[in-house]
């Protein structure tokens, strides 16, 4: 129920200002729980359950541009272009700008609100309306009444003419300011600030994912191109086998079956070529999309085959204790917990009185010539206190909602941290396993190559069946393809590791360029 007090006179004004200063002195009170940054318990070292491999994860400081460890200029160029051109990142930057604007809107409530106004109206008072309760001292003419020298009333003019029309110009200003007695506005600003930080971390998290996705698509492209090269080499071998068996058949040293088997293998190899080329096109298009270009725009730059990026002997991953500062999703979860905690204070403050200081000063006259006179002034000022008496449980329900949201945010923070440890541990295990698989397949390729050469020599000498040559050739192609795939998986395991530890956003894309970027 509002209480309005309007002060007049020097003594009343003195009391008013004293009360105002008292309210300002007490306005530092803030209700609700204060936010405390949650601790993230981290082990002293990364867990490793696999035997040592050729490349190992070390605790050295990581380079923000982690993809440079592959020493591939084309990959570095793509990553930089993604950071400046990707549409998802641009959308995230625009969301950050929106969040900053919302914070500015919330912050505006901390300051007084003032506005100027001016109006003009041509009015006529009803003789039979509420003014019928009033009257003039004596009958006057319409000109005298319209001049403002007399009031309006039923005796203003006789008969059906009634009261005359008159001009009512006025101008002035009014101001109001809510004294943030319980921290209602401050908690709103605190929540809005935390929301800005959470949106900023969300943008960084998108950037981390984009950096890893770009590297993976690039590695997949190089792996597919390697697969195409292996297959084309085997197609050439199969062509030679067809020619060899055909010649031996014509010479009577081979059967028609040998020719059919060699030709069948050639077509089998050839049938695998088109899907691989389509897969390479998909990877090229995916990279084009990441850099905000149309399909096919990277064909000239990336269409030429290149080796799969190699992993160095040492892969720096930083210290486990840095996880909370490195992973944007953990930082974002902490900011959301902060915002939820501040919202509890807003809900609690709604139970207490809200005090607003307001005032207005207007100049009003019945004639335009009177607008310049100080005697035409009218004003009012004083505090207004509003205390909720009955809300039907709305405020209580809102407080319960905010507390439940804060508990949910705390739970999600714990989940985010735990999920981060799982992803890192999985990525490290995959990294070691991929290297072990690659090394075993390299031995397999070496032995299969020897077997194929031996079988071919025996076939030419007539000491072995051609079916044995075909079987071994298929085994060699399979092991070569698997080796290329395993080599790519090693490099992809590194990208997954850096995604898991949150690498790729620090100093790569400064926040000061957001407006230009957006």
Describe this structure in words.
The chain has 13 helices and seven strands. Helix content is 57%, strand content 11%. The protein folds into two domains: 63-110 and 182-308 and 323-352 and 387-517, Outer membrane efflux proteins (OEP); 121-168, no CATH class. It is of the alpha+beta class. Helix 6 (256-271) packs parallel to helix 12.
Order of helices and strands: EHEHHEHEHHHHEHHEEHHH
User: What proportion of the residues form beta strands (DSSP E)?
Assistant: 5-15%
Helix content: 55-70%
Characterize the biggest β-sheet: 5 strands, antiparallel
Low-confidence stretches: 1-10, 23-27, 509-518
Number of domains: 2
Number of helices: 13
What is the CATH superfamily of the largest domain? Answer: Outer membrane efflux proteins (OEP)
Q: Which class of secondary structure composition applies to the elements?
A: alpha+beta
Q: Which overall shape is indicated by the principal axes computed on the Cα atoms?
A: elongated
Please tally the β strands and state the result: 7
Give the CATH topology of the largest domain. Answer: Outer membrane efflux proteins (OEP)
CA radius of gyration: 40 Å
Q: What spatial order of strands do you see in the largest sheet?
A: 1-7-6-4-3
> Based on the structure given, which CATH architecture of the largest domain is correct?
Up-down Bundle
Please, what is the average pLDDT? 82
